[in-house]
Amino acid sequence: MNKLFKQTLLALAATVATVGASAATIKIINADPAGVGFNDTTPATPVGGNEGTTIGEQRMNVYKKVAKTWGKVLPEGPAIKIQATWEALSCTSTSAVLGSAGAVSVWRDFPNAPAAGTWYSAALANTLAGSDLDEGTEPEIISRFNVNLGAANCLAGQSFYLGLDGNAPTGQIDFAVVLTHEVGHGLGFQALTSGSTGARIADETGVAFPSQWERMMFDNTAGKTWFDMTDAERAKSAINPRGLVWTGANVTTDMPSVLSKGTPILTVKSDKFPAIAGAYQVGPASFGPALSSSAIKGTIARVIDQADGVTGLACNPLSAENAALVAGNVALVDRGTCSFTIKVKNAQDAGALAVIVADNTAGGPPAGLGGADATVTIPSVRITLDDGIKLKTVLTPTDPAKHAVRAVLGVDKAFYAGADAAGRVMLYTPNPYQSGSSVSHWDTLATRNLLMEPAINADLPTFKVSAPKDLTLELLKDIGW
């Protein structure tokens, strides 16, 4: 039996809250100092079923509810100890790491291990072994949450919603959903094997071993699993956009009850420019109508509203020339400067049928368009920088009809949104690699949105981790839970 630590524990005084359930027991170790985080004594008004009277008490009440949620669906075994703190995590005025969590240690070749010579996260290893492998000396999971959220330099104006009812108002982020996501990582929703280098975790003697995940990570381009790849091949697979899928039986079986049939797609047609014709990957918008089998068809009209004659940001109401171009057509605009909702609304006001937003940074696959505006009534999607350049090369700011470049925006009913043709759910593999996000999440194309995508979406159900609402528990079952 071999154990390897993955994280360094903080030497902090701690209090423990135990949440028992019909199956697993989870112990929350509050390691915050006095007056901070879970010990914050700032008075708070009860909200959304959370009857706590201080900020710290309300935060802990949410954690207890999340622990109870997980405890009900996990098998009986040794208590799962989770160390919890509020700390200054990475953030800027427009973005923030909301939280992080992961296994404190990994284990292999323990009693009842399903596969020999294979790393398992501590909580899962203990459950499979039927005993606390480190004899209760350490927690199995460390979780941290951003104590500065909402400050001027940390996603300004945002805050955590501490209700238990899933009704987070605009401008607040549901802490229960964030917390459920992070505990999912700690329980084993993490690849363990490095995505940036492809390297496996080595033991104290320097011998590297695979993780349980590798057996169920299949690259459609390479035609093999991570278990059968070299380090270099795994690193290449980790940046193969929408090319890496999960083959576990539980996820694949329950996927049709969770994801929607129909992958969003842009098909470009042109007799004059056959080189640009074909299917384009898109990131759909979270606002406006969703793409459907009733495809939007129209000529692509490129907006140019900058003095340099190059960029079309559509951040202001379209000029008479641009409005005449996009009316009754599909507008092609550029990402940057203003929100996606503003761009799409300006094109809509000018009579556009739909909007394509060309990215301004390299990489792929194209992420979705975030935002909310109930007045947007036309669909919109994002395409990659390279695909945007390809289209703009032939689309000059003149009468679009002369170019005969047509768009068909709809869904491919042969695929589930977020799965490949074989019904295997895609893992998140953007290029370039995104540390902390790549590989150990589902792809953002998944619809419905899934708990373990790399960003928290506002439409996620609270305290739901399994089919037909989600697929997190199904993946955990695939790895041995």
Automatic annotation (TrEMBL):
Lineage: superkingdom: Bacteria
Domain PA per the UniProt entry, residue ranges: 311-390
UniProt KW Zinc keyword: no
CDD domains according to UniProt: PA_subtilisin_1
Database matches in Pfam families: PA
GO molecular-function term, one example from the UniProt record: peptidase activity
Residues in the signal sequence: 1-23
Protein name (database record): Serine protease
Organism: Ideonella azotifigens
